[in-house]
Specification:
This protein has helices at about 5-15, 85-95, 125-135, 170-180, 195-210, and strands at about 20-30, 30-40, 50-55, 60-70, 75-80, 100-105, 115-125, 140-150, 155, 160, 165, 190-195, 215-220. With about 220 residues, the protein is an alpha/beta fold.
Length: about 220
């Protein structure tokens, strides 16, 4: 029996929702699914905006538009399927030609800004979020992405290079070794942290102790 909140969300979706069509659904390694969607509308030219997708009756998940092709009105989502959950099950079943009911776009609070260095830190669920920032950065900005991944051999996701972190309690040690190696200037670096709430809280606290601008967004857990 759906709750009052679920029924209210379903009613709202019925009024503002739109339908996208799956163009392709491809696996990247053993943990990510790349979904390309044909949208019926243009999206604003900003990074980290998301679509609220109906993955089951009365059940919705927000997925960041990792890449947007305005000429073809094609949105690319990168969905982490390395863990069990309704969203993972839904994404793994998608086939070309399937229709997806969605609302949006929403979000878009994280933008590249003007700092010379952009440093992204998170887990696999933040891959699309960080790829969106990567595609919107200026050519003059350096970009580094540290990801806690199921696949420790992954060093390139689409066109974005990544530095994989240990997928266990040692990821924090890996991260600090890399940050020490690069020695990013606190006054000219923006850190973007996203993913599991606990990971985000731990990394944000550590970065703020070192100095530098930190923009954080928790997605789950």
């Amino acid at each position: 029996m759906p709750s009052i909140k679920d029924r209210a969300a379903s009613l709202l979706m019925s009024r503002i929702g739109k339908t996208a069509v799956v163009i392709s659904a491809d696996h990247i390694g053993n943990f990510l699914v790349q979904i390309r969607l044909q949208l019926p509308q243009q999206l604003p030219a900003r990074s980290t905006q998301h679509l609220k997708c109906e993955i089951a009756p009365y059940t919705y998940r927000d997925y960041t538009v990792a890449h947007w092709d305005a000429a073809t009105q094609t949105a690319t989502l990168l969905i982490d399927c390395g863990h069990k959950g309704n969203g993972s099950h839904w994404a793994l079943q998608l086939q070309p030609g399937n229709e997806i009911f969605y609302a949006g776009p929403g979000g878009g609070l994280h933008q590249p800004g003007t700092a010379a260095h952009m440093v992204c830190i998170g887990d696999a669920s933040a891959t699309g979020h960080f790829h969106s920032l990567y595609t919107h950065k200026s050519p003059q900005q350096t970009f580094h992405c540290f990801l806690r991944l199921e696949d420790p051999t992954a060093h390139m996701l689409l066109q974005m290079s990544v530095q994989p972190l240990s997928n266990n309690e040692h990821y924090f040690t890996d991260l600090h070794e890399w940050l020490y190696h690069y020695n990013f200037p606190a006054g000219n670096t923006t850190f973007f942290v996203a993913g599991n709430h606990q990971l985000v809280a731990n990394v944000r606290k550590s970065l703020r102790q070192q100095g530098g601008q930190v923009k954080a967004q928790g997605f789950w857990g």
